Amino acid sequence: QVQLQESGPDLVKPSQTLSLTCTVSGDSITTNDYWWSWIRQPPGKGLEWIGYIAYSGSPYYSPSLKSRTSISRDTSKNQFTLQLTSVTPEDTAVYYCAREYLNSHDSWGQGTQVTVSS
User: Fold this and answer.
1) pLDDT for res 5
2) CA 29 to chain CA centroid, nearest Å
3) Per-residue pLDDT at 16
4) In angstroms, what CA-CA distances link 91 with 27, 94, 107, 117?
5) pLDDT at residue 46, as a whole number
6) Predicted pLDDT at 6
7) What is the pLDDT of residue 103?
8) C-alpha separations of 72 from 21, 54, 81, 112 in Å
9) What HEC string does the chain produce?
10) Per residue of the chain (118 residues), what is the pLDDT tens digit?
11) What are phi and psi of 91, to 5 degrees?
12) β-strands 112-116, 11-12: how paired?
């Protein structure tokens, strides 16, 4: 059974870079046909897809966040990482990593709260 766990700072200052890591166990992030996503939920709002990195290593980003987003991976550690630059308080959210298969997110991490504040 696949498990995902987010890690990273819970407080980031405005204009800085938010960096989160998702550690995956029970499956390899290079397994064919799986995509590894970052998703967030701001307070009082719905889920927002940020982007994913495919099993091939190719990243894809939401158009609205593309200019500030980078998703990479470390296959030796079975981890993938989100970097979001120039954050503002509007980036405050619970951030989730998830596995996507056949257009469905079938496994999720528990989520981590990130607050952007000075």
Assistant:
1) 98
2) 13
3) 98
4) 30, 9, 23, 10
5) 97
6) 98
7) 84
8) 10, 10, 5, 19
9) CCEEEEECCCEECCCCCEEEEEEEECCCCCCCCCEEEEEEECCCCCCEEEEEEECCCCEEECCCCHHHEEEEEECCCCEEEEEECCCCHHHCEEEEEEEEECCEEEEECCCEEEEECC
10) 999 999 999 999 999 999 999 999 999 999 999 999 999 999 999 999 999 999 999 999 999 999 999 999 999 999 999 999 999 999 999 999 999 998 888 899 999 999 999 9
11) -90, 0
12) parallel
Interior angle at CA 19, CA 29 and CA 82, nearest 5: 35
Residue 37 has which token pair? 């996503």
**Counting beta carbons within 10 angstroms of the beta carbon of residue 33, is it exposed (0 to 12), middle (13 to 18) or buried (19 or more)?**
exposed
User: Rounded to 10 degrees, what is the CA torsion of 52, 43, 21, 70?
Assistant: 50
Q: Which amino acid, one-letter code, is at 101?
A: Y
Cα dihedral: 9, 10, 11, 15 (round 10): 60
